[in-house]
Design brief:
By secondary structure, the protein is mainly alpha-helical. The protein has 18 helices and no strands. It is globular. 54% of the residues are buried.
Length: 419
């Protein structure tokens, strides 16, 4: 009878908003994460503008991103074990509090006239370390909070609001730079991390790690850190996708993070607000896709859909340097954002279906390690490659590589038949 009443309660609400209506834990996680993403989206626009205004160098921008990714990659193999051993909500709160303090420190440095590339390198390294701890915990706690009855709509609604924040965040960042100053943006970022910290205080129970049975003989620390490998290697969809995206991410993130701001701010000499508008286009495409995804409880032919959308995003990046029109640049970023979001939603949902909550932190950390491990070298390569052959040529070649890699992966039956 209780199950029947619960099912009737769920049917009262449209599919997309069910998580908000029935889950207090989801509401707390959703509010805190959405606001912190908004703040981070503001600084994601401000940092490249500062770097290029100081140096006009793609290599320097590559160094800043490498400083962010290197600590992130180093901590990830151990982060999964940490996430699966301690309260995940407590770990997330600690990371949010530290990131809040860092953002306010950068704000004060900016107002004092002390902000330079060296400080940005140190800040990027600390933020990378905190993100390397926060993200596996966030993925693991979602697997607990997003129960099967609301899973598809919870993933979609989370990404819809995240992309909504990324839609307004870059535009707000460009506006802040135009009418105020960069330190104000870091202050807003710090405030959003503080709000996220407060919201996460409602998740202590959901953050507890569930352990089954009495303690057996414990394996070695190294074996525990990489226990997720045994889960991943059993499923073709998991291990092939993690391996493929270790290379696909080099191309896509190198273009979006390093070459798109170069194209707009340096090559085309467009105003800062145009860069914010173009990056908001990426978020708009992702948000529309999340809305579409959340309207259905179940999706089929997920393998071909996921990789087909990634390939479409690669084509969009390939064509970006062939136009000077802001509306076309924005349109291409809408397509790229839509393609990557569809893949991301399918991937996140499949992980929650295939991986047990007790091992989710370690699997999530290995997923992130596979995606991010080569990014520090990739950022340096992108900066060097663009400096050697030209930014436009580099964008075309890297975009073509994305299309080629996605087509290659679709020849694998386990991917092509993944439903």
């Amino acid at each position: 009878m209780d199950n029947a009443r619960q099912a009737a309660h769920l049917r009262r609400y449209p599919q997309l908003i069910k998580p908000l209506a029935v889950s207090r834990a989801f509401r707390a996680l959703w509010i805190g994460n959405s606001l912190s993403v908004f703040g981070s989206s503001i600084t994601s626009v401000i940092v490249p503008v500062i770097v290029y205004s100081l140096t006009h160098s793609t290599l320097t921008m590559g160094l800043v991103m490498t400083a962010y990714m290197l600590p992130n990659v180093v901590i990830l193999p151990f982060a999964g074990l940490i996430v699966d051993q301690i309260n995940r909500a407590s770990l997330m709160r600690t990371a949010d509090l530290i990131r809040c303090l860092i953002a306010f420190a950068v704000m004060f440095c900016g107002f004092a006239g002390l902000l330079d590339v060296h400080i940005l390198l140190v800040v990027a390294a600390f933020l990378g370390l905190m993100d390397g701890l926060f993200q596996p915990a966030f993925s693991a706690i979602r697997a607990t909070v997003f129960v099967p009855e609301i899973r598809t709509s919870a993933n979609a609604l989370t990404q819809l609001t995240v992309q909504g924040m990324r839609l307004f965040g870059p535009a707000a960042g460009g506006l802040i730079i135009s009418i105020s100053s960069a330190p104000v943006g870091f202050g807003v970022d710090g405030l959003t991390f503080l709000i996220s910290f407060i919201c996460l205080r409602f998740l202590s129970k959901e953050g507890q790690v569930q352990r089954n049975g009495a303690a057996a003989e414990r394996p070695s620390f190294f074996r525990e850190c990489f226990a997720g490998i045994y889960v991943i290697k059993k499923n073709t969809w998991l291990w092939v996708t993690i391996l493929a995206f270790s290379f696909i991410n080099i191309c896509t993130t190198g273009i979006v993070v390093i070459l798109v701001p170069w194209l707009i701010n340096v090559h085309l000499h467009l105003p800062s607000y145009v860069y914010g508008l173009v990056m908001s286009g990426e978020a708009a495409g992702a948000a529309l896709t999340a809305l579409l995804f959340g309207m259905r409880k179940t999706w089929h032919y997920r393998g071909p859909i996921a990789y087909g959308c990634v390939g479409a995003g690669g084509l969009a990046l390939l064509f970006m340097p062939l136009t000077h029109a802001a509306y076309l640049l924005t349109g291409f970023m809408i397509l790229e954002g839509a393609g990557m979001m569809m893949f991301g939603l399918i991937w996140e949902t499949s992980l929650q279906e295939l991986v047990s909550p007790a091992a989710f932190g370690r699997v999530a950390s290995l997923d992130m390690l596979g995606s991010f491990a080569l990014l520090p070298a990739g950022y340096l390569f992108t900066g060097w490659f663009a400096g050697s052959i030209g930014g436009s040529a580099a964008m075309i070649i890297l975009g073509a590589a994305v299309v080629f890699l996605t087509a290659l992966v679709l020849f694998i039956p386990g991917i092509r038949r993944f439903d």
